[in-house]
């Protein structure tokens, strides 16, 4: 996912668990590839946080959540950095 100028938008994962506030999952909204193309940065973050929330609620396994994140995030340094942050959140859920 890159902007018109070829740069990759920043991926800013939340440092808190999504259970502290509303999420797209709570509304029954699941981002599509079309919506991610419209606003890649914030929609991508929302999609990733929805995965974290699904795991927090016990709807998906840790393995399934990690695969969903890998599928969502771009294969570059920013995507890898974001993945590590989201993975930290997933492992915190398993330790609760």
Q: Quaternary status of these chains?
A: single chain
Mean pLDDT: 73
Q: Please tell me how large the radius of gyration is.
A: 13 Å
User: Strand tally, please?
Assistant: 0
Helix content: 55-70%
Q: In terms of per-residue confidence, which ranges show pLDDT below 50 for 5 or more consecutive residues?
A: 14-30
Give the terminus-to-terminus CA distance. 34 Å
Q: What is the makeup of the main sheet?
A: none
| Number of discrete domains | 1
User: What proportion of the residues form beta strands (DSSP E)?
Assistant: under 5%
Tell me the series of helices and strands, N- to C-terminal. Answer: HHHH
Secondary structure category:
mainly alpha
How does this model look, in words?
Helix 3 (62-72) runs antiparallel to helix 4. Helix content is 55%, strand content 0%. It has one domain. The radius of gyration is 13 Å and the shape is globular. It is an all-alpha fold. The longest helix has 19 residues, at 77-95.
Write the layout of secondary structure elements.
Layout: H1 33-38, H2 40-56, H3 62-72, H4 77-95
């Amino acid at each position: 996912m890159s902007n018109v100028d070829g740069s990759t938008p920043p991926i800013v994962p939340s440092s808190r668990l999504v259970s502290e506030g509303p999420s797209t999952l709570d509304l029954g909204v699941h981002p599509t590839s079309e919506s991610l193309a419209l606003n890649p940065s914030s929609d991508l973050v929302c999609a990733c946080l929805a995965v974290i929330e699904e795991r927090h609620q016990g709807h998906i396994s840790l393995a399934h959540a990690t695969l969903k994140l890998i599928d969502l995030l771009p294969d570059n340094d920013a995507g890898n950095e974001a993945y590590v942050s989201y993975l930290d959140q997933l492992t915190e859920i398993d330790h609760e």
